[in-house]
Amino acid sequence: MVSRVIPVDPFDLVIFGGTGDLARRKILPGLYRRMAAGQMPDTARIIGAARGEIDDSGYRQMVRDAIQTFIPKDAIDAKTLDSFLERLGYVQIDAKGDGGWSDLKAKMRSGMVHAFYFSVAPSLFGTLAERLHKFDMAGPDARIVVEKPFGHDLESARALNDSLAAHFDETQIYRIDHYLGKETVQNLMAVRFGNVLFEPLWNGQYVDHIQITVAETVGVGGRGAYYDRSGAMRDMVQNHLMQLLCLIAMEPPSRFDPDAVRDEKLKVIRALTPVEPHHLVRGQYDVSGTEPSYRDDAENPRSRTESFIALKTHIANWRWAGVPFYLRTGKKLRARTSEIAVIFKPTPHSIFGEASSAHRNILSIRLQPNEGIEMFVTIKEPGPGGMRLVDVPLDMSFAEALGPDGEDVPDAYERLIMDVIRGNQTLFMRGDEVEAAWAWTDPIIAGWETRGDVPKTYDAGSNGPEDALMLLHRDNRRWREIRG
Ligand code: NAD
Question: What pTM did the predictor assign?
Answer without folding.
Answer: 0.94
